[in-house]
Design a protein that fits this description.
This protein has 365 residues and is of the alpha/beta class. It has one domain: NADP-dependent oxidoreductase domain (TIM Barrel), CATH 3.20.20. The protein is built from 15 helices and ten strands. The strands form two sheets. The protein has an eight-stranded parallel beta sheet with strand order 3-4-5-6-7-8-9-10. The radius of gyration is 21 Å and the shape is globular. This is NADP-dependent oxidoreductase domain-containing protein.
Length: 365
């Protein structure tokens, strides 16, 4: 099917919203075709730093301002994910420098990320700390407290019990990062060994000691988030963020009320796995990995990207999340990936385009 016929199919499938977006259809088809051609070479261009104010957002009700797209470092240092085989600290240094130069200032890590390389000094926190220092630019770093008592099996230290273990773990993280304090400290996930009262006490102590600027949580459902928010509010400390899985193919946070709860409480939703492990990419479309309904959605994203300045499937997938008010933190192990993420910083999908995507998702799911 030719590009013009494909786009007409998209319009018909998308209904009135898409038809309105492309009301000047013949002109749009021609322009989109040219933009698609240009998009194939966009990753070979020099990265231009995005300094527009609209590429930054406050993290919850705090004073921290982060890029509307961050960078996740789950795979950094993880030998099972290819560290020191398909990518190294040298290549990650290029990624970090390109990210900062391109306007990304928010980097997310955790004490257990890449723990396999901790003894060699190459766990995720250790790498992030070194690269942030090397960059010489102000960055917002976030790490996490792993709530499992026997975390020591993975990263050393004692058994984790009680509030005192929270500050102890934080100090160990700061040591690996090479920092005196960190901007964002997060509960990695709720776990019975640490109830919300204990967590709130430990995190409040971290703030009082000047070790942390802001606190957040990860993988919290609405009721858990409301409870933690209330406990921190009593202590005069806002909850900055809730990091959860959220992408075009995984919209559970929209359906279970988590996204709305974050909005109601002024908490920023940080979206991990925003590209569904590489499924929301042009590569997945071209390789045939995406099939059936997934392929239909990716082709729709491809078209929207074409009429939005030649943006890629990846960039539209990220733009969808930022349009919903989330801050996606895709991973990156090479320059191609980080350039894709940078290219989404200036993308602003309008309500019409978001509605088209939602309609198609609702129709196929």
């Amino acid at each position: 099917m030719g590009i013009f016929a494909e786009m007409r199919t998209f319009i018909e499938a998308g209904g009135p919203h898409l038809a309105h977006t492309c009301r000047h259809s013949n002109k749009a088809f021609t322009v989109a075709s040219h933009r698609l051609q240009r998009s194939r070479t966009q990753n070979h261009r020099v990265i231009i730093r995005c300094e527009a104010e609209n590429t930054k957002r406050h993290l919850g009700p705090t004073e921290l301002k982060v890029s509307k797209i961050g960078l996740g470092t789950l795979q950094w240092g993880d030998t099972q994910k290819g560290y020191n085989k398909t990518f190294t600290e040298d290549s990650l240094s290029q990624v970090f420098k390109a990210a900062v130069a391109g306007g990304i200032n928010f980097f997310d890590t955790a004490e257990v990320y890449g723990y396999q390389s901790m003894k060699e000094g190459s766990a995720s926190e250790q790498i992030v700390g070194r690269l942030a220092k090397e960059s010489g630019q102000p960055c917002v770093l976030g790490t996490k407290f792993f709530t499992v008592p026997w975390t020591n099996v993975l990263i050393g230290g004692g058994l984790r019990l009680g509030r005192q273990s929270i500050v102890k773990a934080l100090r160990a993280s700061l040591n690996r990062l090479g920092l005196q304090s960190i901007q964002l400290y997060q509960v990695h996930f709720p776990f019975p060994a640490f109830n919300q009262e204990v967590l709130s006490e430990g995190f409040a102590e971290a703030v009082d000691l000047g070790l942390v600027e802001a606190v957040g949580v990860c993988n919290y459902k609405t009721a858990q988030l409301q409870q933690f928010h209330s406990l921190m509010d009593v202590r005069g400390i806002p909850v900055a963020s809730n990091q959860v899985k959220y992408n075009i193919f995984e919209r559970g946070v929209e359906k279970d009320g988590t996204l709305q709860a974050c909005r109601d409480m002024g908490i920023t939703l940080v979206a991990h796995s925003p590209l569904q492990q590489g499924l929301l990419t042009g590569k997945a479309l071209e390789s045939g990995r995406a099939q059936g309904d997934e392929q239909v959605i990716l082709k729709l994203l491809q078209f929207i990207g074409a009429v939005s300045g030649g943006k890629s499937v990846t960039q539209v997938a990220l733009g969808y999340l930022t349009a919903k008010g989330a801050i996606p933190i895709p991973g990156a192990k090479n320059l191609h990936q980080v350039k894709e993420h940078i290219g989404a910083l200036d993308l602003e999908l309008d309500e019409n385009e978001v509605a088209v995507i939602d309609e198609r998702l609702d129709a196929v799911k």
